[in-house]
Amino acid sequence: MRIVLVGPPGAGKGTQAAYLAKNLSIPHISTGDLFRANISQGTPLGKQAQEYMRAGQLVPDEVTVGMAEDRMGQPDASGGFLLDGFPRNLAQAEALDAFLRANELTLDAVLDLEVPEDEVVKRIAGRRTCRNDSAHTFHVEYKKPETEGVCDVCGGELYQREDDSEETVRKRLEVYHRETEPIIDYYRAKGQVVTIPALGAVPEVTQRAMGALAAKAA
Length: 218
Hints:
Blueprint (H helix, E strand, L loop, with lengths): L1 E5 L6 H12 L3 E3 H11 L2 H11 L6 H12 L8 E4 L5 H13 L6 E6 L2 H9 L1 E4 L6 E3 L18 E2 L6 H23 L4 E5 L4 H16 L1
Parallel strand pairs: 1-3, 1-4, 2-3, 4-8
Antiparallel strand pairs: 5-6, 5-7
Helix pairs in contact: 1-8, 2-3, 2-4, 3-4, 4-5, 6-7
C-alpha cells in the first residue's frame, strides 16, 4: 500500500506511522528522517538543505521533493510506503502525484488523524523534558513523574521546552491550518481521504486506522 499520513502537530503521527508501517510491512518515510539521512551522508540535496537551515531559512519544496522521490525509488519501497510529514503543502502534493504518475503508481489512501485543537495544545504544552537527557519525557497529566519536576530515570530537572509552550503550539497550528490542511481537501476531492479519530490509547487508534484501510481496499 502507498499511504500519506496527515494530522496536526501532537496528533501522534510519528507513533502511528511506526505501528502502521510495521503492521503493513512497508517502510515509514518521514521528512525528519530524510533530512537527517541526507545531511549525515553528505548528499547534494543534504548539503543544499543544510545551507538553508544554517541560514535560518525554510528548505525549498524542490529539495524536500527530491529527497522524497529518491527514497520512494529505493528497492524496499517498491511494494509500498507510508509517508509521514510529506507532502506538507499543495505544491508537494502535486509533485507527489506527478512522481506516482510517472512511475505508473497510485496512492491508496490519505489517513487524516483528527484531534481537537484544545487536545493538541494540552498534549504538547503539558510535556516536560529532562534537562539531563531529552529522551526522558513526561506529561503533567498523561505521564506524571513520581516527584513533581524530577525525572524518574535520572533525577534531573524537568522543564518545558520553548517549542512546547502554548504560544508556540498555537503558532504551529496556524501554520498547519494555512499550509497543510488544504492538501486534505485536495485529496478528498480525489476520494482518497480516510479520517480517523485519534483520541484514545495508541493501540485503539492503530486498530481504527487498520480497519479503515482494510475497508478502503475492499
